[in-house]
Amino acid sequence: MIAEFSIVPITGEESLSRYIAIVLKQVKESGLNYQLTPMGTIVEGECHEVFALIEKCHVTMKNHANRVLTRISIDDRGEDLSRMHRKVESVLEKLYE
Amino acid sequence: MIAEFSIVPITGEESLSRYIAIVLKQVKESGLNYQLTPMGTIVEGECHEVFALIEKCHVTMKNHANRVLTRISIDDRGEDLSRMHRKVESVLEKLYE
Amino acid sequence: MIAEFSIVPITGEESLSRYIAIVLKQVKESGLNYQLTPMGTIVEGECHEVFALIEKCHVTMKNHANRVLTRISIDDRGEDLSRMHRKVESVLEKLYE
Amino acid sequence: MIAEFSIVPITGEESLSRYIAIVLKQVKESGLNYQLTPMGTIVEGECHEVFALIEKCHVTMKNHANRVLTRISIDDRGEDLSRMHRKVESVLEKLYE
Questions:
Q1: Which of these, B47, B57, C46, C88, is most buried using a 10 Å CB contact count?
Q2: Per the structure, how many domains does chain A have?
Q3: Which of A24, C54, A3, C88 is nearest to D89 (CA)?
Q4: Tens digits of per-residue pLDDT, A33-51?
Q5: Mutate to test the interface with B, among C13, C42, C94 (most CBs of B within 10 A)
Q6: What pTM did the predictor assign?
């Protein structure tokens, strides 16, 4: 499945890039296919792998702030593990049909 | 922590209440404190309990539709397990100060 | 349509209830049907009314913080303006069928 | 500000790419800076331009389905209009520090 998530620690620092780097490090270590966007991190993997990774990232961020806001969007079509790039291509094809 | 989630199966049925009832049944069985709103289900519990419940609900919904869209918002302040109602009260107090 | 939204100013204050009260004040002034939940504010109204209200609340919050994170979920079924409470009732009926 | 959005018509069609192409067409016509991701469309512009575009896309989708679910996430730091790519670069720099 594909999931996008963003984890925001309420620390008073306006710049969050340092914290996003902490999350991204764990995403890379997971070995899952991923993409960093201006609004979050998109990962692709088996359902349980993805939930476990996001929970781990959330728990890690709790070490950096007492309050953490996490937002997750999941698109689970289940059939395979290489939809992430094809989804974008599929839209672009229809746009130029 | 407090989390709100909504799980939408893409089945072609416009009414989703039958599917929300399936989710709510599992939420009730979990024993966690919960609230059903017009836009989703809010649950409160330890971090791992909440992630496990939402993953279980998502996996269950995959039995009803090939494609499932799930949206989760988490507010983790960690310190206790009875914030759900106090959060609303705290806002209302400030509104009428 | 029904929409839930949450507006988080990045100010360094861990408690956000003061800011939620500012939003809620504008929601009340709009005259729209609303419900405050532990995770956000749910409003119901015509499409343009709801978008205008949320934009207004977001712009107001920019007076309180340089960085503001806003999250909106919309469920637009269009046909009428009193679904907010019926949605919850409809699920509960199916749960106990 | 930067906003990501996704608009899902409940039509019974499992593939949504045809509908995302309709949204993307309007995004391109708006002239705003944008990026299509596997989970949504990210746009960058002045606050009112972005709200107006997303409302327009949502209303257009209502012509294709009686029920439409829209999800929006906004990150408004206000100061300039070219953060979209710098946000990703800023994280990557910290990752490799």
A1: B57
A2: 1
A3: A24
A4: 999 999 999 999 999 999 9
A5: C94
A6: 0.92
